[in-house]
Amino acid sequence: MFGSGSTAYQSRGLPGPILIPTRFVWPYGGRRVFLSGSFTRWEEHIPMSPMEGCPTVFQVVWNLTPGYHQYKFFVDGEWRHNEHQPFVTGNFGTVNTVFLQGEPDIIPSSFSPETSGRANMDVDNEVFTHMEVAPRISAADLEVSRDRIAVFLSTHKVYELLPESGKVIALDVGLAVKEAFHILYEQGIPGAPLWDFEKGQVVGVLSALDFILILRELGNHGSNITEEQLETHTIAAWKAGKLNLNRQLDGNGRYYPPQLISAGPDDSLKEVAVRILQNKVATVPVVHKTSEDGSFPQLLHIASLACILKCICRHFRYSSSSLPILQHPISEFRIGTWVPNIGESNGRLLAMLRPNSSLADALSLLIQAEVSSIPIVDETNSLLDVYSRSDITALARDRAYTQIRLNELTIYQTLQLRQNANSPHGRVQKCHMCLRSDPLHKVMERLTEPGVRRLVIVEAGSKRVEGIISLSDVLNFLLGLA
């Protein structure tokens, strides 16, 4: 939580008085800022942390019981109060005041997408000139919110995701892996559907994970990964070899190939969301079958969780009050994966690496932990960058994969390759962050922005990693699947 002395949320889930997470903000600068008040008997000074990107704005979240409270700010050794908030003169001089109801109303806020021009490395840079109070969500409100989202997704179809114009990139299974590698890098996409011209249909998807597995496999055959090795592998050959390694038995002891995970234009958005989540895939091709026997199919679109979440945001934009959960902080729901000593453990590993770790370590961790990205942190676990599965395509630039050894290339060097590949004139920021106090609607909006698939939850000021939340985490929560 914000500030080393804060214990907000520590009582959540335990019997006792109602505690309301309350945000205090000092937006007028200073070097060291503390909060004190009647809720600490004026004895404890609660450290406040500067907001990332806004060093003059300090904030902290503290649990308060319902009722009347007084508070002041201790700024660089001097007691101050905020003249833009309610204040009175009392035993402790001029103090700010706040009254919290036992069942406070949800504070309304806009539910519209943020501007696309904001820097990716920014956390919430809004200058708060008010104090936000988030009441704890009730089981009834949670159920109502989920029911309304389920009804919306069940009554809307996949064809509503189809853009008026656009293109869908598909790869011929006869392409060499090397060519596919370059195409995905040049197009700036992490994967693509596979088209078999002999069968006249979509037969699978080539993803960034395939390239990770290919590079690891070829790297085991010698000290260097050579372009010649990649040229001998077609997509079809790779998929066939992968199938032999991962074949499954049916009830009669016979091997059967995995089915293609796809969607039809008349499928409901809920069906597709559940299909993506249960099969742990990033996207599914939308295929329209023009004949009864399924021949002559047309590849229409690529459906993703981001598209579905964007539909939810757009639909409830002007009626956010119908979803009570939207105003509550993500820390209240424990969505995503958290550092054990920060949040309640959900049994999943929060994978993190240092910059001097090898690329081989990163690729192994992506596979073993079954995650799509890994925060790169310093010795204090403060966020430096993120390495994602899709970053593997950066190795296609100038055939970098032919010149590297996975065990010798560090994460820092790999990120430099990504920087050069993505932006020859300057670094493209790829870290997308949020705070544990951010309301769910703000996290949802940010996850619908182009290229954003997960947010790293950081501590304000220090950027110490507290957790990570992804598109799949949010949809699993909204649908009650987690």
Helices, by number, come to: 12
Named CATH topology of the largest domain = CBS-domain
CATH architecture of the largest domain: Roll
The termini sit apart by 24 Å
Mean pLDDT: 77
Relative strand content: 15-25%
Strand pairing plus helix content: what structural class?
A: alpha+beta
Overall domain count? 3
For this structure, what is the CATH homologous superfamily of the largest domain? CBS-domain
| Helical residues, percent | 10-25%
How would you describe the shape?
Answer: globular
- Contiguous uncertain segments of 5+ residues: 1-15, 103-134, 247-256, 423-428
The level-1 CATH class of the largest domain: Alpha Beta
Rg? 25 Å
Query: What is the count of β-strands?
Result: 22
The profile of the biggest β sheet is:
6 strands, antiparallel
Gist?
With 482 residues, this protein is of the alpha+beta class. It has helices at residues 139-154, 177-187, 208-219, 227-231, 235-245, 269-279, 305-315, 330-333, 359-368, 411-422, 440-447, 471-478, and strands at 20-26, 33-37, 46-47, 49-51, 54-64, 67-75, 78-80, 87-90, 93-100, 171-172, 192-196, 201-206, 248-249, 255-256, 283-289, 297-304, 337-338, 373-377, 383-388, 433-435, 454-458, 465-470. The chain is globular and about 85 Å long.
